[in-house]
Design a protein that fits this description.
- With about 150 residues, this protein is of the alpha+beta class.
- It has one domain: Immunoglobulin-like (Sandwich).
- The protein is built from three helices and eight strands; from the N terminus they run αααββββββββ.
- The strands form two sheets. The chain has a four-stranded antiparallel beta sheet, with no helix packed on it. A four-stranded mixed beta sheet has the order 2-8-7-4.
- A hairpin with a 6-residue loop joins strand 7 and strand 8.
- The radius of gyration is 17 Å and the shape is elongated.
- The termini are far apart.
Length: about 150
């Protein structure tokens, strides 16, 4: 019964994501993210619009670099990004708070802080979890050469 009520609450949230909603009404709670991840009946598909790899080239040590991985929901259900994490503390990802309706686009954003990185070539990863099929886990990578 508890699960049924949670599914109803998630469904109500999705139904209320019209253009007149405020930003706060579009935000998804942690509980709703967890439910979306487990409910395969509401899985959708994602297309990474540019690439899942970005070469940032050379960056002077101490700089903070913004990274963007644009995507589109190519399925017929709402796309919910349930988690975004990084392979190390020098990369700070952002988790989108709102669902993305069918055909809608968004961006996974992260910041790379080169301050604590040695002068060298670095390959870094950002991990995205979403209610997507056939895979719920996505690995985004970037390369950066930190120079003095």
């Amino acid at each position: 019964m508890k699960k049924l009520l949670l599914i109803f609450a998630v469904s109500a949230l999705f139904a209320s994501c019209g253009e007149t909603d405020t930003a706060d009404e579009k935000n998804i709670s942690t509980e709703q993210r967890d439910e979306a991840k487990q409910d395969s009946a509401n899985y959708t598909s994602i297309r990474w619009d540019d690439s899942t790899f970005i070469d940032l080239g050379k960056v002077e040590k101490g700089r903070m670099i913004e990274i963007s991985f644009p995507f589109t929901n190519t399925g017929d259900k709402n796309l919910i990004i349930t988690n975004v994490s990084a392979g190390c503390g020098c990369t700070i990802p952002e988790v989108p708070k709102e669902p993305f309706g069918p055909g809608k686009s968004g961006t996974i954003k992260a910041r790379f802080d080169s301050k604590s990185q040695p002068a060298a070539v670095h390959n870094k990863e950002v991990f995205v979890s979403a209610n997507t099929s056939p895979n719920t886990q996505h690995r985004l990578t970037f390369r950066v050469e930190v120079i003095e």
